[in-house]
Amino acid sequence: MGKPADSPKRSRKTSSGSVASKTKKAVKTFKKGRKAAKTLNMSVGEFVVTFLLLAAIYFVWTYDKLPGNNNSSMYDGPYEVVKVVDGDTIKLDIDGETTTVRLIGIDTPESVHPDQAKNVPEGKLASNHTKELLGKNDVFIEYGEEPYDKYGRVLAYVYINDDTMVNAEILNDGYAQVMTIKPNNKYEEYFKQLEQDARNNDRGLWSTGVFD
User: Fold this and answer.
1) pTM for this model (two decimals)
2) Is 110 a residue of the active site?
3) Known catalytic membership, residue 10
């Protein structure tokens, strides 16, 4: 299973309106620059070379900020998986620091809760399933609209090979229920469809009655 239909794309295209607007600005800047060059006694050749060099630097600096090129803000990684805490929580090595990441939109049965009474055998099954999904892969993360919870954990959608969303796979395989906490509800409807299909087909933990 790949990304949902409305998942952000890693396109390198920009909108024609944006390009036209930036072109007009560049022309105006060029004309102003020529006037400044005359004041500085620069030759036409010197001015053109200087202008093109500055333009190239500006393009490189702003490229990811153009429409459709914001993949760097949408996805971070790849990061090494340090540990699977439980079915919906993992630890990643982010810039040399072990960081706890809570998978957005899903909730699996407890297996490591401080209150032992809340831990159930199905929680261990969910944890093992997440371990199997991740394997030895590095992962990419898409931060939520709200990037941290009250415990300081990173809230994110986690991807294997920047393509397969782990959150969705866990739901599809029947090891979690949908848990929506706004504003992190980007894929809520998609997640609900996956949950319903898993439930209808008794996949994973839906056959155990733990979610009833």
Assistant:
1) 0.67
2) yes
3) no
